[in-house]
Amino acid sequence: MTTTIIDANVTKRFGKKKVLEDVTLTLTNNEIFGLLGPSGSGKTTLVKILCGIDVPTEGHVSVFGKKMPDLELIKRIGYMAQADALYHELTAKENLVFFASISGVKRNKRAERIQQVMKLVDLESDLNTKVETFSGGMKRRLSLAIALLHEPDILVLDEPTVGIDPALRNKIWDTFEILKESGVLIVVTTHVMDEAERCSRLGMVRDGQLIAIGTPDEIKTKTEASTIEQAFLSYGG
Ligand SMILES: Nc1ncnc2c1ncn2[C@@H]1O[C@H](COP(=O)(O)OP(=O)(O)OP(=O)(O)O)[C@@H](O)[C@H]1O
Ligand SMILES: [Mg+2]
Fold first, then answer.
1. What SS3 string covers the chain?
2. Pocket residue to mutate for ligand 1, from 10, 13, 14, most atoms within 8 A of Cβ
3. 74-95, pLDDT tens digit by residue?
4. Has this prediction a pTM greater than 0.90?
5. Which domains, from first to last, does the chain contain?
6. Ligand 2 center to residue 48 CA distance, Å?
């Protein structure tokens, strides 16, 4: 059954600058919604507002029918920021244990969940390594593992696969598809066109406006493009 999970209409200003203008979105379970747009177009600002980390200047966001921000709802969201928020002086495992405790993973489930998410991002053998020695891609993968830890109903991922090689990226996207099939809503920003092709729907953002929305096929048809990359460019991406 398809149900609405996020319903939003937002305008956001930083000082005098309008960064998002009247962006309207209705997102459902069982979908991977991809946000595409040039650097600075407002993708990060939008996803932060959707998951209650920031608030709109005008408009509203509701999640599961409740107005955001809402502390209870935040627990049902897994957010992976564009910039990694990890404790570098701690090991991967210590980071995971900390985030598991604040995101409400039951104590007796923690060890098992940590193993599962670290297997998924292919970091099982680095559990006891300090994060300060991790490469950029390894930090990205650990951040993704943390976002998945508490089995959220909504995953908001801001450029999750930057610095991750194509084979592992594919495997991670296979997992996104499995999660989607289980009813999870995934909102993902990306600059990677083969990832865009794997989204259920795409929103194209330019200068703070949502200028197109639809399935990858609909967007290609509308722009008479044969690839998402061409469609993106024809929208001035
Ligand atoms: N806290 C802030 N204060 C002032 N301006 C901001 C702030 N955060 C973002 N902006 C501005 O808002 C605009 C949109 O930024 P945002 O980070 O949402 O873009 P983006 O689409 O995520 O870009 P990228 O693809 O580079 O990550 C930019 O012009 C940016 O400078
Ligand atoms: Mg961004």
1. CCCEEEEEEEEEEECCEEEEEEEEEEEECCEEEEEECCCCCCHHHHHHHHCCCCCCCEEEEEECCEECCCHHHHCCEEEECCCCCCCCCCEHHHHHHHHHHHCCCCHHHHHHHHHHHHHHCCCHHHCCCEHHHCCHHHHHHHHHHHHHCCCCCEEEEECCCCCCCHHHHHHHHHHHHHHHHCCCEEEEECCCHHHHHCCCEEEEEECCEEEEEECHHHHHHHHCCCCHHHHHHHCCC
2. 14
3. 889 999 999 999 999 999 999 9
4. yes
5. 1-71+188-237 (3.40.50.300)
6. 10
